[in-house]
Every structure is written in structure tokens, then in C-alpha cells.
Specification:
- By secondary structure, the chain is an all-beta fold.
- The chain contains no helices and eleven strands.
- Strands 2, 4, 5, 6, 9, 10 and 11 form a seven-stranded mixed sheet that branches.
- Strand 4 (32-39) and strand 5 (46-51) form a beta hairpin.
- It is globular.
Length: 117
């Protein structure tokens, strides 16, 4: 059974940092593209960052230079390091695993990130 379990969310002041982690199980992690998405109230879910099975990374423009995505295939984990957080980063953050073909896609339950003073 596929499981994606996010952790690391919370409340942080503007300018602060958070580190989100996603622990994966139930599929061949190294073969999947891994991503972090977020959904703010009243908005659509959007891609934040992605790391492919080959290690290529891409970021949404609003987070470039502030967020870093990484994966550890030995530990079946993907991490999103978020620095210089802004109030507009407030959202529920979701971990996603997508097969190379795009046919299979799995989601975590989400973790809340709130940036506020």
C-alpha cells in the first residue's frame, strides 16, 4: 500500500525557515518523480518544487532562490527546505509521487504551513 507521510509544518514568523519531510513507502521510490505542492484557502493546488527520478529539479517562480528540494533514495524521503518564508507561503503543503509515465500519482495527507507574525 502506497503511503506518503509529511511532517515538519507549523507556524513561523516571516523570514523564518521550515523543513518539510515526506516519508514514502509501498512503491519503488527511486523510479518516481517527487514533488511538493501547496494549496492556500480559496486557491487551486499548485506545484512548488519537483525532483525527478534522475535528480533534476525545478521550482515555481515565487519560491526560486528560497526553497530547495532534495531526495534520498536510500531512505525513501524527499525534503523541502524553505527559507525566507513570506506570509504568502501560507498553505497546506502536499507531497506527491508521480510515475515517469504520469499514469500513477499518489498524494500525502498534507501539512499546514503558516507564516505570520
Amino acid at each position: 500500500q502506497v503511503q506518503l507521510v509529511e511532517s515538519g509544518g507549523g507556524l513561523v514568523q516571516p523570514g523564518g525557515s521550515l523543513r518539510l519531510s515526506c516519508a514514502a513507502s509501498g512503491f519503488i521510490f527511486s523510479l518516481y518523480n517527487m514533488g511538493w505542492y501547496r494549496q492556500a484557502p480559496g486557491k487551486q493546488r499548485e506545484l512548488v518544487a519537483q525532483v525527478t527520478s534522475g535528480g533534476s529539479r525545478n521550482y515555481a517562480d515565487p519560491v526560486k532562490g528560497r526553497f530547495t528540494i532534495s531526495r534520498d533514495n536510500a531512505k525513501n524521503t524527499v525534503v523541502l527546505q524553505m527559507n525566507s518564508l513570506k506570509p504568502e507561503d501560507t498553505a497546506v503543503y502536499y507531497c506527491n509521487a508521480r510515475s515517469a509515465s504520469g499514469i500513477r500519482s499518489h498524494w500525502g495527507q498534507g501539512t499546514q504551513v503558516t507564516v505570520s507574525s
